[in-house]
């Protein structure tokens, strides 16, 4: 991807630098942010928008909406959306299939063919995306509702953090500022992305999310939404939950941990962690599993004194891979190598460190399926 001039002069054909990146965009009105993004994008011919690995509905919807903005307001001739990893969860597969979202696996694109690179619902320093290290300083546009990673501010346009429960909310602000009416399919995707990330406006929701929900509601196709939210499920889905419950252990009546062993899709780890938080009295849930020689962990927190994203980075940061999240939910991916006993030792050590952070390391675990009912 060749270096090109940008609005703030970060990239130059000769490889030099002029002024530093602009100040944080999160504090600016939507119209001002839109104008700055258009300024950065205009003049480019081919844009590639990337989601995070194993994308969820929020990431997929945001990417499709950004691609539409670039085509219709920044005059970019082509804007394509690609993802790395798998779309494995049944609802996510249905989202793409039912709405016919134009997203493709990263293996089908050549990064060097694009002169504009966007990243949504993630940031270059996290590593949970398809941007190779050689291009992480070449990302032009970053839009993400997760906490700011300082390195992201090196991009010509980085709208990161702010008062949002989902990245879909942020993209709707851009669409409205651009007076651009999304198609029924894109509106339905954004609506579901917002619902999924905020758990139907019940988690880390702001007034902006509520306003966005109400704006999207009449534009979303409820029949298509029903097909997405209630898809048919494969037998292995129920087998996975059998394993999750069978291996789940409760610590001190406040924390629950389960090892899913090997999963058919890494995004199932987050679904299980989410589900386990419905157990009465739980303040913490941790689910983990292996997939293609990697360990995936998902953390959920109800204790307002703790930040799930910060905690998972502190615990998993020494093991390589990637980790991140925000107040009540976070995830990590760690590469695994060596013999089976070495892998088991890594899992034991990680669980021990989480239990210490939960304050239940000295509690004797009780198997979920044998725990007494209250």
Q: What does this 3D model show about the protein?
A:
- This protein is 36% helix and 18% strand.
- It is an alpha/beta fold.
- The chain folds into 2 domains: 30-229, inorganic pyrophosphatase (n-terminal core), CATH 3.90.1640.10; 235-368, Diaminopimelate Epimerase, Chain A, domain 1 (Roll), CATH 3.10.310.40.
- The chain has a 7-stranded mixed sheet with strand order 11-12-10-9-8-7-13, with helices on both faces. It has a 6-stranded parallel sheet with strand order 3-2-1-4-5-6, covered by helices on one side.
- The longest helix is centred in the C-terminal third of the chain and has 19 residues, at 340-358.
- Residues 1-25 are annotated as: Disordered.
- GO terms for molecular function: nucleic acid binding.
Secondary structure class reads alpha/beta
The name of the CATH superfamily of the largest domain reads: inorganic pyrophosphatase (n-terminal core)
- CATH fold annotation of the largest domain: inorganic pyrophosphatase (n-terminal core)
The first-to-last residue Cα distance is 60 Å
How helical, in percent, are the residues?
Answer: 25-40%
The appropriate CATH architecture of the largest domain is Alpha-Beta Complex
Q: Give the domain tally.
A: 2
Radius of gyration: 21 Å
Largest sheet: 7 strands, mixed
The CATH class label of the largest domain is Alpha Beta
Order of helices and strands: HEHEHEEEEHHHHHEEHEEHEEHE
Shape call = globular
Strand order of the largest sheet: 11-12-10-9-8-7-13
Please indicate the percent range of residues in DSSP E strands (runs of 2 or more).
15-25%
Q: How confident overall, as mean pLDDT?
A: 90
Unreliable stretches (pLDDT < 50, length at least 5) are 1-22
How many DSSP H or I helices?
11
Number of strands: 13
């Amino acid at each position: 991807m060749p270096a090109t001039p940008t609005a703030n002069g970060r990239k130059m054909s000769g490889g030099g630098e002029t002024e530093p990146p602009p100040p944080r965009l999160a504090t600016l009105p939507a119209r001002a942010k839109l104008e700055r993004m258009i300024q950065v994008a205009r003049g480019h011919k081919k844009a590639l928008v990337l989601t995070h690995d194993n994308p969820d509905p929020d990431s997929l919807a945001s990417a499709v909406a950004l691609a539409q903005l670039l085509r219709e307001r920044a005059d970019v001739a082509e804007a394509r959306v690609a993802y790395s990893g798998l779309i494995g969860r049944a609802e996510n597969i249905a989202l793409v299939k039912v709405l016919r979202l134009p997203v493709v696996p990263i293996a089908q694109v050549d990064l060097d063919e694009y002169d504009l690179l966007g990243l949504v619902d993630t940031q270059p320093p996290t590593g949970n995306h398809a941007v190779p290290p050689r291009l992480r300083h070449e990302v032009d546009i970053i839009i993400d509702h997760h906490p700011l990673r300082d390195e992201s501010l090196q991009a010509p346009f980085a709208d990161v953090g702010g008062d949002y429960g989902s990245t879909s909310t942020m993209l709707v602000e851009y669409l409205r500022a651009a007076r651009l009416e999304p198609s029924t399919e894109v509106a339905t995707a954004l609506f579901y992305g917002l619902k999924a990330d905020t758990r139907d406006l019940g988690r880390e929701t702001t007034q902006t999310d509520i306003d966005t929900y109400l704006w999207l509601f009449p534009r979303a196709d409820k029949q298509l939404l029903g097909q997405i939210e209630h898809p048919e499920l494969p037998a292995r889905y129920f087998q996975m939950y059998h394993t999750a419950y069978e291996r789940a252990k409760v610590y001190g009546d406040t924390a629950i941990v389960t090892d899913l062993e090997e999963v058919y899709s890494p995004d199932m780890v987050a679904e299980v962690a989410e589900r386990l938080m419905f157990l009465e009295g739980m303040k913490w849930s941790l689910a983990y599993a292996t997939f293609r020689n990697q360990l995936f962990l998902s953390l959920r927190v109800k204790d307002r004194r703790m930040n799930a994203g910060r905690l998972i980075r502190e615990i998993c940061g020494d093991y390589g891979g990637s980790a991140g999240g925000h107040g009540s939910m976070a995830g990590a991916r760690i590469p695994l190598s060596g013999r089976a006993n070495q892998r088991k030792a890594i899992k034991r050590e990680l669980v021990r460190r989480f239990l210490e952070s939960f304050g239940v390391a000295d509690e004797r675990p009780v198997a979920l399926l044998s725990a007494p009912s209250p």
